Please model this.
Amino acid sequence: MSTFIEKLGNIDRRVIFVVMALAVIIPLAVRLSLPIPIDEGPSKDMYDAVDALPPGSTVLLSFDYDPSTMPELQPMAIALVQQLMTKDIKIVSLALWPMGVSLGNEALSYVSDSLGREEYVDWVNLGYKTGGGVLIVRMGSDIKSVFPEDYNGVPVDDIPVMDQINILGDFDMIISLSAGDPGIPAWVMMAGDRYDISIGGGCTAVSAPQFYPYLGTGQMVGLLGGLKGAADYETMVRIGVDDPPAGTATPGMAAQSVAHLVIMLFIVLGNISYLANKKRKGGVK
Amino acid sequence: MNWTVIGIWLGALLSLSLYSFLYKDNPFYKFAEHLFVGMSAGYWVIYTIMNVLIPNWWNNLVPAEGGMQPIWLIPGVLGLFMVLRVVPKLSGLSRFSLALIVGTGAGLSMTAMFQTNALAQVNGTIIALGQGGGWFDWVSNLILVAGVVCGLVYFFFSKAHTGVIGGAANVGITLLMVAFGASFGYTVMARISLLIGQTQFLLFDWLPTMGIHL
Amino acid sequence: MRLAIPLAITFVAGMIMILQFFVPATQSMGESLQEWYMIVASFAIFLGSVNLLYVHTHRIRFKGRNWKYSPVTIIGFAAMIITGLVFGIEQGKPFDYMFTQMMVPMGATMFSLLAFFVASAAFRAFRASNWRATLLLISAFVVMLGRVPIGAMIWGRIPLISEWIMQVPNLAGQRAVMIGAAMGMVATSLRMIFGIERSYLGGAD
Model:
């Protein structure tokens, strides 16, 4: 037994890969479902902040991510757009990352089609611009000089949803779905603090811990962190909605649970093997 | 021809090619990797031209209503200087472009970062100490304030970490270890979420095209 | 002397950006500079692309390592450029189709590989070798359990403890790092604006 534990540390990494793959595939394949409890926290704060916006408000939605983080951020985007469009809140979107334009279009047109909303009347995608924080500051004094047309070349002066929008201060809230830099920090620094606009956001789980200081000071009204944040939001948005469209984050949480347990098991086994080897070499006193 | 099914198969085969790297490096992985790099660069170039350079530079330089605005030649020339970095004899010209980018970025982010990430955080920490609530909230706020101060002491290397400074630095690194543990937990969560997303694509989009419904 | 003009540009640009916070007269200059910044920074992608094409054509020409795959990169690059310029970039066009059906799955898969490596690393490297490392490990375990539904099923208070870790020790640690980094950033920015830090210009002379 002790030899087995000692040798465990030298196990082929491909065995770990197979176990990891099975930990994700099996719960998804058998459609394992676990309840998502919604506690007080940044996800609920985010939902409440958006919910408090009156119909007819306009929100700036910034798609600051690319396909590499899509499994975490795209379900958030869809749930957020769903909540905004259901509440008759107009959406102006843009992207600080070039690939965010296409991903944003996917989310916006998917929900817009399902709810019967109209592009340019209820929402518009302005597209991508280089510059991150510098771009945001310029938008603070004149949006149309930065975005004279939408992503597809339609002049913003011909877009009804942009009629009352001239500067960043005209938005009732800014939401950034952020996978890194530029993203949430740029919006908080250059828009939230500088022009006193409510900032909400969703981010990858990797970066979520870094943004807790912004929540603590009220510089952000709420935050969706990773797949858990997306699942929370999907769950909250679905409450009270007849026949809500299926999300991808909520079904994924069961697989996430199993995979977390497996990783924890790996860490425990790795440590047992480490201690056994250390003891054999006389390292443990 | 069903372009949706073809698209799903393209995506699935490319995904599986990339996953084959887990067994070992192989030609399928290399093919997909090289394709991804090329396509990503192409995508970026097109969006830069269509979404930035045409509307924000060209249309300002040569407006539709006629006449040329020579002032807009300046950013164009500086942009060209940037590209000339690949020409050894002219690479020095890229310094002008870099100077503009670095100067603008440094000036803007210096004030913003000082306000948002330093002053506002210090303010938030002091306010936390004065906030009410029960004994648990009071203890939590005390840990928060002590954690921030001791964490900063830990990062202060101009004085030896001995005596009171050493004690505070020890408290600081302990709190930081708990924070790093939380970050590790979140990192694990992020990586697994990405795998779940792609597994969902393969199980629920690709397999059904072969008549396999899970 | 060859650095004098770039250093002057950095100083003027940096000062305009700082002054426009406080002096309204510099506002319009600052706005023009911001618009120029966007355009000049955009050209960086051309620099990257020219470099990418140079590396791969060079590799093909001299039959360098993995040269047989270099045409794949060039073809992928050309395919996106041609479809984008010829058919446009709106939804449903070939450019968008290639993005959605090829780039999205490839990008997502590339990063999902990290799930396997993080599992392997956790098994091999995450050691409770001292009490602080053990504290790190316990914190990671609580957060990992608290963020998934199974945590609440094991013990109802795990999500609450996890949230407390995030709101108190994590916030304290992250805030200390944030304040420290901000002070460092301010110092570095000042050094750049005043020409003390010159490494970004490729030389210290």
Remarks:
- Chain C touches chain B through 122 residues (CB under 8 Å).
- Residues 87 and 93 of chain C are 6 Å apart (CA to CA).
